[in-house]
Amino acid sequence: MVLKLYTYFNSINGKRAAITLHEKNVPFELHNIDLFAGEHKAPAFLEKQPFGLMPYIDDDGFILYESRAISLYIATKYADQGTQGLVPTEPKANALFHQAVYSEITNIEDPANKAVVEKLFKKALAGLDPDEEYYQKLITNLDSKLDVYEKILSKQKYLVGNEVTLADLHHIPYISLLPVTGCHSVDLRPNVARWFKDITSRKSWQAVKDGIKSTSTY
Amino acid sequence: MVLKLYGVAGWGSTNRILVILREKGVPYELHEVDTKNKEHKSAAFREKQPFGLTPYLDDDGFILYESRAISYYIAAKYANQGTQGLIPTDLKANALFQQALSNELCNFDSFARPLILGVLYQPQGVEVDHQAVDKMISALDEQLDVYDKILSKQRYLAGNELTLADLFHLTSGAVLPICGYHGLKTKPNVARWWNEISSRPSWQATK
């Protein structure tokens, strides 16, 4: 049975999972969740994803949530098809992979998520104006982390080494929204800009950036 | 050569790794980083950990940072000794394990850590913002209501076996009562789980 992805079609975290589906050429059905009607907080959704967050997948009855866990599952299950090497298996490379995956969450997702919510979602979802001072504090924090990325990416093509991995791809959805908030920190750092242009040119991001769609063939 | 951990005894992220080293019975040396004098922000330290954060691991010249990545590496490298099953290998069991790891960081620690910082680690002279703290306690409590539901159906967070995902909660969880949050003891299924994991010798030796 074809894999089902349950998420709002334009969800940041939904796109993270969808990128990997595309990288591995995995057919899937998008089941759109009505974000603005609060469908993700309704009992039927909470049965599957008890935190009321998107996305989750139903892989022939196997329910899984948290976009990075979904991404890792897809890359592992379909190891033999599509893009190779997304999850390095050699022990030290695997350790550096996990280091980069955790680095993304603690150093980038944390300030970027809050910046995007503050500047873009607070008005749309709660009708409140952004706190500019708070937003600037978040960007200053993010900038200090991107300075480190600039150094790392001056020595190697991608975050784990010279091959692309999920650790790189996981960064795309939040970072892609930063310019919309008025933050151009990526463009100001040549190596980060080079890296980000590379990973966002891939067909996987091109396929989902304007919204996730059911995909039956590749 | 024995593993060298560069961190701060008593700090959450260093302690997180010490629990796993103890579970797996792996010898190590803890090298204390002089954070009071900003050693972790020095150029020499940043050569190893470019974000200027503790801890990092030196395994015979192999440098690794991020406490959860270090813990994962130790559990995988020493898979055959000490506590078994901390990283499930079956495809679906591993996926549920990855889900639980993500829950720990994104749905628990991202709520617990700001609360801990807000109560215990305010800069000198800065008052605790009690309104903000109350909000954070409320938000954390909502997350643990979900944990209680999950733990009503299974013994641990990834299923019925203990994994790294459970153990990663110990260092932040243990400090929550001092911050005024007692949900780990008051929610019935969470309390059962918390008592189990916090009674383990590895935590008793670390806390």
Describe this structure in words.
The complex is a heterodimer of chains A (218) and B (207). In chain A, 55% of the residues lie in helices and 8% in strands. Chain A has 9 helices and 4 strands, in the order βαβαββααααααα. In chain A, helix 4 (91-126) runs antiparallel to helix 5. Chain A has 218 residues and is α+β, with helices and mostly antiparallel strands. A 4-stranded mixed sheet of chain A has the order 2-1-3-4, with helices on one face. Chain B has 207 residues and is of the alpha+beta class. Chain B contains 10 helices and 4 strands. Chain B has a 4-stranded mixed sheet, covered by helices on one side. The longest helix of chain B has 30 residues, at 91-120. The mean pLDDT of chain B is 97. Chain A binds chain B through residues 50-51, 53, 62, 64-66, 68-70, 72-73, 76-77, 91-92, 94-96, 98-99, 101-103, 105-107, 110, 145, 148, 151-152, and chain B through 50-51, 62, 64-66, 68-69, 72-73, 76-77, 91-92, 94-96, 98-99, 101-103, 105-107, 110, 143, 146, 149-150.
CATH topology of the largest domain in chain A: Glutathione S-transferase Yfyf (Class Pi), Chain A, domain 2
**Domain unit count of chain B:** 2
The biggest beta sheet of chain B reads: 4 strands, mixed
What number of structural domains do the residues of chain A give? 2
Largest sheet entry of chain A: 4 strands, mixed
Looking at the overall shape, the CATH architecture of the largest domain in chain B is Up-down Bundle
Low-confidence stretches of chain B: none
Which second-level CATH architecture of the largest domain in chain A applies?
A: Up-down Bundle
| Strand portion of chain A | 5-15%
- Classified by CATH, the class of the largest domain in chain A is Mainly Alpha
Shape of chain A: globular
Can you count the beta strands of chain B?
A: 4
Shape of chain B: globular
How many helical stretches of chain B? Answer: 10
Element-level helix/strand string of chain B: EHEHEEHHHHHHHH
Q: Mean pLDDT of chain B, as a whole number?
A: 97
**Portion in helices of chain B:** 40-55%
